[in-house]
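[job 4471] stage=fold_predict status=RUNNING
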Amino acid sequence: MEPKIHLLPEELTHKIAAGEVIERPASILKELMENALDAGATNLQIEIEKGGCASIRITDDGEGMDPADVPLSFRRHATSKLAVFDDLYRLSTFGFRGEALPSIAAIARVELLTRQPQAVAGTRIVVENGRIQEVRETGCPVGTAIFVSKIFDAVPVRKKFLKTEATEQAACMEVITRTALSHEGVKIRVLSNGRQQWDIPAAPDKGRRLGLVLGRETSDSLLAVKGVRGNISITGYISRPEVARSNTKSIYCYVNGRYVRDPLLNHAIMTAYRNLMEAKRYPAAALFL
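[job 4471] inference complete, writing structure tokens
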């Protein structure tokens, strides 16, 4: 009698694991933006086609990658952020698990060009459905450019669950907004289907960046807040009670620079506005813990 239990092929396990990291085009965008920021980028250009469902391209001016590291970066759990377990308690980067690029490449085609400042030439790699198709030397600017296409083509059942182009684009723009608010020193330009959607310059402080991202009306109503208790500090901006929104989408909370959406934090913010705001009306806020 043949055994019923068998090991899954590695290619299949990678696609299953990718589903835990990459849920939609916005997930790809988030991972790539965080990689660029970890590389020290101060300029980001983001190009989205069909709401990110067709393709996503991110170009940065970060430190680039060593040629030997390029193929390794597409292997699962290969990372420059961790060496021993205790490094988890000293992390100052977004990524650390070494799963982003392998997960993206498992469900799409990824073309990456990268060059370090001291290098004469750069490196080009193409990975599709988890398999490296090409690695070669190439000419390119300092930094990294990643082009992701054929998104979910290898996993049609996942592609079927994508929303409309407009909904997926809105999700991508929300990821960009969250990142822009917490990284005021980074210039961000966004193109959608070839048309410019955003061109946000670097700002000297978070208050200026809030004005550029959320609009003049919101920025004029903001009050700076600051507090310290024990080893926890909080800084940021909150809106005056008379400037209210119909939902909580303008409440942005960050812990150690990472965006979080936590009901407890939202409840704490709303408690502070109790008796100052009508029912079912919400403030705008950007708080950094």
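[job 4471] summary: The radius of gyration is 21 Å.
[job 4471] exit 0
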